[in-house]
Specification:
This protein is an alpha/beta fold. The chain has a 7-stranded mixed β-sheet with strand order 3-2-1-4-5-7-6, with helices on both faces.
Length: 271
């Protein structure tokens, strides 16, 4: 099975920066446990568990339809091949990355003739300034274009091999496996106070929804991912110190990546 160190197609918020620490932390968990990826996203966590523990049962909740993008990668590569040829005409510009208005119009014209599936996240990541994405044609037409098209095709071979894919509300999936013996939950919700525009429900993550996710780590074995921007750890500490509730992150280990991202998981995992 091929090991990927990042998701094969662009995805907002994938966990490639965490993988080294994630693999190390997995050593404290059972190689034959059931791992339930409640917020599957790009599937990178599910893929990593399956490569580290081939005998584990891994449930990937593809709520955002990432696997559909994987299945249509040939169409995406064909469209990008044509866009790549158009971008190559930009050789006379001083700024080799910024595309002229004429080339912008030519690319828009080419995309307008595309029938059926279009992977807007991958296409926009190839044309917009770093880390910017759009989700439809009307949004794309309004943006300035840059030549960010990779030189080779995208390859997705074997990425989710052996992983069980479902598409459910995370609460229903959690209820389904809550009482399963030897289960570990991967809890990676969209971060509060960050851009969720490329997720399937951008209006979903209000503060109450974010706090409701904490129910999935009560008396369970889990990995929990958050951002310091959400200040969820600070909030839970304050609530406990002022007598409002028990801190759900008591008796956990915390790993911080850079200055913004935090991973929390139980110190003692009985699985």
């Amino acid at each position: 099975m091929k090991t990927y160190t990042q998701a094969p197609l662009p995805f907002q918020g994938q966990k490639r920066r965490f993988l080294k620490h994630f693999k190390e932390a997995l050593k404290e968990f059972s190689p034959t446990a059931t791992y339930v990826d409640l917020f599957g996203g790009s599937g990178l966590l599910s893929h990593t568990v399956k490569t580290v523990y081939p005998d584990a049962k891994v449930i990937y909740n593809d709520f955002d339809g990432y696997s559909y993008r994987l299945e249509n990668v040939d169409k995406t590569n064909a469209l990008l091949a044509d866009i790549r040829e158009i971008c190559a005409k930009n050789t006379n510009r001083k700024d080799k990355e910024r595309l002229s208005d004429d080339l912008h119009s030519e690319i828009i014209e080419r995309i307008s003739h595309e029938k059926g599936f279009i992977d807007w996240v991958t296409i926009s990541s190839s044309l917009l300034f770093s880390m910017n994405y759009v989700t439809d044609f009307e949004q794309l037409k309004k943006e300035k274009f840059y030549n960010k098209v990779r030189l080779s095709d995208y390859s997705t071979n074997g990425y989710l091999e052996g992983v069980d894919r479902v598409k459910k509300d995370y609460r229903n999936l959690f209820s389904e496996y809550r009482n399963t013996p030897n289960v570990v939950f991967l809890v990676d919700p969209p971060y509060l106070s960050t851009d969720c525009s490329t997720y399937s429900r951008e209006d979903y993550w209000k503060l109450s929804d974010y706090l409701n996710v904490l129910k999935t780590i009560e008396d369970t074995s889990y990995f929990y991912f958050t951002s310091n921007k959400s200040q969820i750890i600070e909030l839970c500490n304050w609530m406990e110190q002022n007598g409002y509730c028990r801190n759900p992150f008591d008796e956990t280990k915390t790993a911080t990546i850079g200055t913004q991202l935090t991973r929390v998981f139980p110190e003692l995992c009985q699985v």
